[in-house]
């Protein structure tokens, strides 16, 4: 699933000199996705993997990297 997220971000994030890998932080430090871009990412992953986004016991998604982010899909 990490490869799916990385592929989507490389295609849709237009930020110069940024290397996107599993340690890239999604929301504030590295990519700085806004709410619509973040929802687009979640919708894309749900369609590709047929898994739903579940964010039960974690309220703060800032500073979450890609390898942690994919654990929210079940």
Low-confidence stretches: none
Distance between the termini: 11 Å
DSSP strand count: 0
Largest sheet, described in full? none
Name the shape in a single word: globular
Task: Give the helix/strand class.
Answer: mainly alpha
The helix fraction, in percent, is 40-55%
User: How many H/I helical runs?
Assistant: 3
Can you offer a commentary on this structure?
The protein has helices at 2-12, 35-49, 66-69. With 74 residues, it is mainly α. It has one domain (2-72). The termini are close together. The model has no long low-confidence stretch (mean pLDDT 87).
What are the defining features of this structure?
single chain; 74 residues; mainly alpha; globular
Short description:
By secondary structure, this protein is an all-alpha fold. Helix content is 41%, strand content 0%.
Topology:
Elements: H1 2-12, H2 35-49, H3 66-69
